[in-house]
Amino acid sequence: QSATGLSDLMPLSPPARVLAMLQMFCGVMYLALIVTRLIALQYIKHTPKKNSDK
């Protein structure tokens, strides 16, 4: 079982279970995308700029 945040409700039919799994997966991937984007922005901010005058 996985914590779906639905308290005592569980999807019983196979299509409902697939939908619940997809929703959980999308939620995790959305959070990962936001964290990755924030890390990338910080990395770009603190990376020294290259001098292109050479």
Could you list some keywords that capture this structure?
1 helix; mainly alpha
- How many separate helices? 1
What is the mean predicted local confidence, pLDDT?
A: 84
Q: Would you report the number of β strands? A: 0
Question: Which residues sit in consecutive blocks of at least 5 with pLDDT less than 50?
Answer: none
Strand residue content = under 5%
Gap from first CA to last CA? 59 Å
Radius of gyration: 20 Å
Structural class: mainly alpha
Profile the largest sheet: none
Categorize the overall geometry. rod-shaped
Order of helices and strands: H
In short:
The chain is mainly α and 54 residues long. It has one helix at residues 14-46. The model has no long low-confidence stretch (mean pLDDT 84).
Question: How would you characterize the overall build of this protein?
Answer:
Helices cover about 60% and strands about 0% of the residues. It is an all-alpha fold. It is built from one helix and no strands.
